Amino acid sequence: NGGKVTTAEMWRQQRRPEIVEDFDREIYGRVPTNTPRVNWKVTSTVRTNNGTVPVITKQLVGHVDNSSFTNITVNIDVTLTPPASATGPVPVMMQFGFNFGAFGRFRGTNAPGGTNGFARGGFGGGSGPTWQQQVLAKGWGYAVITPTSVQADNGAGLTQGIIGLCNKGQPRQPDDWGALRAWAWGASRALDYFETDPAVDARQVGLEGHSRYGKATLVAMAYDPRFA
Q1: Over residues 137-155, mean pLDDT
Q2: String of b and e for 60-97 (b: at least 16 CB within 10 Å)?
């Protein structure tokens, strides 16, 4: 209304909700009031090395409750890799990308979106440490969430994934959430799991991504202040 924001409480209680409403209504769409719960399972645990650092990689599957519409199944794909030598919870960097197993074979973000469909710097080039190895060198862990396991990023997929499940297979309305907001929702559900895993310092979970996954990173961090 033109008044100055003079306190943190005014920002949290008045101005920030107004901005969130603008972005919900005009840009990213509204998340349904009651989204399905997600049940997380560790489907495999592998001890290996990334470079010279021993690590433990957990393959996680977040099964979204589809009892309201069993024709659509959504399983969120996440890998979590802390250093094996950790004696307590560690910070984690999570990437919107693709899971290539425990070894993190490719450099960069591994995310389409740059020239010819590949992120610049994603494949090949250079002989320095990968991003995962740079994280491990700090004593942190890393994680990768596959956004397309939450929601396809094309119009044909909007009647599938978490958006399609919430809409029971029907087309979305103009102000329903789109893929970026759905990916952000998926990242928040992964953070829910991290809060239960004793290997993770859930107060220090960062997020990264390239190109459209970079946009998803900003959206996720803006809507969920738990991300560091």
Answers
A1: 96
A2: bbbebeeeeeeebebbbbbbbbbbeebeebbbbbbbbb
